[in-house]
Amino acid sequence: MTTTPRTSGVQAGRLPPEALAENFQDLHAPLDHHEATVAADRCYFCYDAPCITACPTAIDIPLFIRQIQSGQPDGAAKTIFEQNILGGMCARVCPTETLCEEACVREAAEGKPVEIGRLQRFATDGLMSSGVHPFARADATGKRVAVVGAGPAGLACAHRLAMHGHDVVIFDGRAKPGGLNEYGIASYKSVDDFAQSEVEWLMQIGGITLRSGEGLGAELSLSGLRPEFDAVFLGIGLSGVNALRADGEDRENVSDAVEFIEGLRQTGDLSSLPVGRSVVVIGGGMTAVDAAVQSKLLGADEVTIAYRRGRENMSASRYEQDLATSKGVRLMFNVQPVAVYGNGAVREIEFEYTENTGSGLTGTGETFKLAADQVFKAIGQTLEGAPEGMTLDGNKIAITGAGRTSLAGVWAGGDCAAGGDDLTVTAVAEGRDAAMDIHASLMG
Amino acid sequence: MADLSTNFVGIKSPNPFWLASAPPTDKEYNVRRAFEAGWGGVVWKTLGLDPHVVNVNGPRYGVIYGADRRVLGINNIELITDRPLETNLSEIKAVKRDYPDRAMVVSLMVPCEEWAWKEILPKVEETGADGIELNFGCPHGMSERGMGAAVGQVPEYIEMVTRWCKANTRMPVLVKLTPNITDVRYPARAAHAGGADGVSLINTISSITSVNLDTMSPEPSIDGKGSHGGYCGAAVKPIALNMVAEIARDAEMQGFPISGIGGITTWRDAAEFLSLGAGSVQVCTAAMVYGFGIIKELNAGLSEWMDEKGYTSIEEVTGRAVPNVTDWQYLNLNYVTKARIDQDACIKCGRCYAACEDTSHQAIAMKPGRVFEVVDEECVACNLCVDVCPVEDCITMEELQPGMMDLRTGKVVEADYANWTTHPNNPSAKAAE
Ligand SMILES: Cc1cc2nc3c(=O)[nH]c(=O)nc-3n(C[C@H](O)[C@H](O)[C@H](O)COP(=O)(O)OP(=O)(O)OC[C@H]3O[C@@H](n4cnc5c(N)ncnc54)[C@H](O)[C@@H]3O)c2cc1C
Ligand SMILES: Cc1cc2nc3c(=O)[nH]c(=O)nc-3n(C[C@H](O)[C@H](O)[C@H](O)COP(=O)(O)O)c2cc1C
Ligand code: SF4
Ligand code: SF4
Ligand code: SF4
User: Fold this and answer.
1) Regarding the domain delimited by A241-377, which CATH topology (the fold level of the hierarchy) does it fall under?
2) Residue B78 Cα, ligand 2 centroid: separation in angstroms?
3) Would you call B112 a catalytic residue per the annotation?
4) ipTM
5) Do strands B173-176 and B198-201 pair parallel, antiparallel, or not at all (unpaired)?
């Protein structure tokens, strides 16, 4: 008997390879030249444009769109990269509906913003696919900077430092660079191994050495790095995951959503990936949506996102929520898990309804059970391995100004640092700004 | 329902819309389909003497685009008809026979010698055509042979040729004017003096639309070289409207019939030409770009608007705006307005701010939260913000009533009309009476 979406248990190969290939292609096809021209013509070239303010990296959006309009997409790409060297990835993964496109005046005017994200992809894809790197290094300064973490924050920081003539060594505990661009972002947002080709393209600036498989707290220590380098930047992201705190959490087939997604991103054969018939994802962020949608695309029959607060509190945008429902994912609000049942492996999961009483979220006492042969936890990542002696702010590294930590000569940015949203584009902005601050203090 | 029919210089047509002399009127197949679509008349593509001219065998058109590749204007390097005279004449005759209610005007361009006109006029008359239009307008190709705009730029020639035509045919004679002159009233007066029944204007404007920056050739490029062409389409409407109005309000030419041409694209454009004195209108580029089907919108739109306004005939519309065309010096300097922004309609793009700030006046303030407000102390009422605002009616110009203070000048608005001729700053001001 062949495996289908309705086969029970956690099974691989629920869908034929062609269906899988189709499901995991680019979520938004790239704009072709004609579409880009039409889309670019809609920009009003606003004064002090609100879209720029809404972009964490403050790309000069009206300028780059005008460059597309006037027939110079490569010039547009350069405008983008000047502010955001990962403009290619950001064009694919930014929740534009809550950033630039939400602020676009044409959203206010007619509910249809200028397609900034797709135009950004049009421009950046063009320049990147021609292999051209538009920046050159300044004269060597003789200064050496260690960047820990090759995620968006670390890469942006390293590139900006290299551009200013510093020598940079990037250390990353993992085998491949890119951070969550490589291991976390949903497959259909970053197809064709884009994360790796982007890193290769970025490294063309020169002056950056990548040392993979060298982790802080393992092969390396901050006390070892500080004397060897003129400055250190930490962009180590959030590598821990929060616990569910529900009975039976340790049953088989209850796992972390990020791990599941990582498996998806790294596999060479989607039909070898097992997924449940009835999948329940617990959480309300982008990770929850990505795990749920990709479970569905792998062939799960029933997928439910269970979130403990109301829709308005969900950190995944309305657009992401609609994406999930359009793929057949069911969204449940105001439900929290209390127990996971099953004989060895999970079989069902019990939820309690919640309500928001003025004093916070409380259970109502009313419960129900959902069939589940696979449960994914997507309730947030935590900082793991913050170096000794570093002041924290909540669970993250405390910073002042452009990423200065409590330790002299050590900067931090991206998800591991306090403040800012946990987004690729925010990590890029923080990495870039820390680089400028490091540059200023080294050249002082 | 409004009656759209016209009797223009004795030529009747069921509506005022004629196809201008150009490729759409160059052959029987086209003109029949145009009439089937509903066009009121045509001016047949300009005929010349045999041997007929030849056109280039490469691109004929250059283009200016607006947003979304919308054609705003084109230029062309086409000549008059490149088909034998007899072919055209027999087709004209056949079409006119089958569509007796439509206007059939024949455009002509022959050398500036009386024998040539004497030769062609009887042949045209024989087709049963309703009238002729003398093409003194074509700015390229033909002018280099001493015809077209080369004649149209010399009032004496216009008068002379018009006189020959009037002497050699009973058909009404329209003179088509070139805009490639400094003051259109001179050629128009010459046509008037020569006995023309009316004028048609404008023909195309000498132009280079663009340069190919790779080959360094003007477009359209013929084997790496380009030549100036004739510009037409929506972009030329303002120039054409002004020329029509100049003739309509000229004291020497009171009531001289005008067929308005130049950039007419919608019924609204047509209504504007009529209001400035045209008795019929001609369309070329819009029909070329969108096809004959636009006549439905032109007819329906004009009729609808006339009904709304209570106009029952085209004559009632013709010239209605002419009394309101005046010279700058007579404009009322006591008419004071200020820009007003409707905050609910505003989408906060800041274009009004950029325009006002960088144009000169600094009369729009940008307040926290991207709130844009007019500074009455600085607003000169130029209207530029209204023009650049992407939201219609979001910015309007409000008239200050007499007795109100104009915060910019610190003066109370006066009720009386006062113009430059009596203004104290005018060195040659006449004392107010
Ligand atoms: C499933 C998922 C989906 C997401 N989808 C989106 C999305 O669609 N759009 C969006 O904008 N954001 C998305 N995000 C958030 C986004 O990926 C992060 O905000 C962003 O990657 C943060 O960048 P970073 O450089 O701070 O950290 P990371 O990308 O996490 O990179 C950290 C790097 O540091 C390395 N590292 C960690 N610890 C050590 C150590 N001790 N020593 C050496 N190296 C170390 C890691 O190997 C990694 O390469 C998503 C996140 C997840 C988990
Ligand atoms: C391709 C082309 C050929 C034309 N040929 C003639 C012509 O043979 N005789 C003529 O009188 N006008 C000719 N014209 C001018 C048009 O009749 C008309 O006066 C002009 O295009 C302005 O009107 P529009 O803006 O509606 O096009 C031509 C215009 C074009 C575009
Ligand atoms: S807000 Fe929209 S219209 Fe204005 S500049 Fe930005 S993208 Fe263009
Ligand atoms: S419009 Fe027609 S005639 Fe002209 S180039 Fe195109 S296909 Fe040829
Ligand atoms: S141009 Fe119009 S919409 Fe834009 S800010 Fe000004 S008033 Fe508002």
Assistant:
1) FAD/NAD(P)-binding domain (3.50.50)
2) 9
3) no
4) 0.84
5) parallel
